[in-house]
Amino acid sequence: MNQANITPEEESQWLEKLVGRNLLEKMLCSFSKSTGLKAILVDTRGNTLVSTDHEIMDCSFCRKIRSDSSGTRKCQRSYARACTEAAKYGEPYIFRCHAGLIMWAAPIVLNEYVFSIICGQVLMWEPEDYFLEEIEEMVKGLDVDVSAVKWAAAQLEVMSSDKVQAAADLLFIVANQIMKSGMTVLAQRRNITAQQARLAEEIQARKRSEVAMRTIESRAVSSSSLDKEHELKTMVRNGQKLAAQQLLENLLVDIIEINSEHIDTVKARVVELVVIISRAAVDGGADLSVILQQNSLFYLELLKITKSEEICIWSRDMLETFMNQIDLNKDQKNLQAIQKAAEYIRENFRKKITIEDIAQVVYLSPCYVSRIFKQGLGCTLMEYLTQIRVEKAKTMLKDPKYNVMQAAEESGFEDPAYFTRVFKKLEGITPSRFKQYAL
After folding, report:
1. What angle do CA 50, 239, 225 make, to 5 degrees?
2. For residue 212, is pLDDT > 60?
3. pTM of the model
4. CATH number at residue 402
5. H or E segment at 355?
6. 39-43 and 48-51 as β-strands: parallel, antiparallel, unpaired?
7. Do 145 and 238 reside in the same domain of the chain?
């Protein structure tokens, strides 16, 4: 189906099935909290599918522009164009919206569907008279207070080109993580049909076995069922999804073969497997309340099933749901740990911070927190600390009351020479030269 032929609600539901709305909102909110910039997810028509309004609102300038319906439509067209351009180039697309603000888009492409994460609402230069005059020209035809809009424009945050590019790159990392999650689910769905066919074929093959051999084999299956169930529980708890799927299929074949004429008996055995798998999911880290709620829904669905083949399909979906809960809970905990680590660094950058200090704050091992921080934000803990310190130093260097040595000391650098090397590596110029240009 062409993306242009479906509604925004259908697009949103399709994306949520692949990635999960909770994970989408969590990733966007973590980005927004870490950077202070608002992020939204849009489609190729500029419709907003997921927003972080409850965390960070639009700037005053944008709210005034969107107070008029024509302004809202122009914003939507800007987002639509940015979404298309970002997908065309396959990388972050930095653009200027219809009202003159700097924004950027990170593309998300899943099969024939295209989305983008939009972020920004900043300027890259101090607003001068010609810009304010340009703003007045841009809002012509809108039912807004022009003076109030120009005042709001003068209050916008000004970001350097390096910082804009860094924020765009970070947003691209978030978009890639969303694409990775979505493509994994799509690949799993493509395999379902083939796996179902193989399962049905194996069931039919076993049904053709001789009656005498069935009796003997049924006893062997019965004696090994407990071992297989114990193995299945271990696989689920350890997150071995593929191995658990294969073993569950094997168990289902055994159950259906022995009880092919008694669907209620098959259901009873499957309920036992649901109990085993759900307990293993909780042991693996899934949320108990969510698992209990899901169990209730599964039992109601199972009651309505009348065919063995449908039970096989249902059982596979049940296993995948429980194992996804394990992964989801783990991802949420990792995001919370990354956010807490970043907050700790921002609050304590003047101190001598070690990876061990950060690990104690988030209650994780130094090795593990280093790995998930790098995976989540694209930089190491110490690189992030250095970036924060350099940004604080830049702010002080713009203030005449601080010299280079004071800026280094106040931003957490004990060695002025090391401060100079790091500053030049990140900014391209020395601190003293930066101060000359800033004043």
Report:
1. 130
2. no
3. 0.44
4. 1.10.10.60
5. helix 355-362
6. antiparallel
7. no
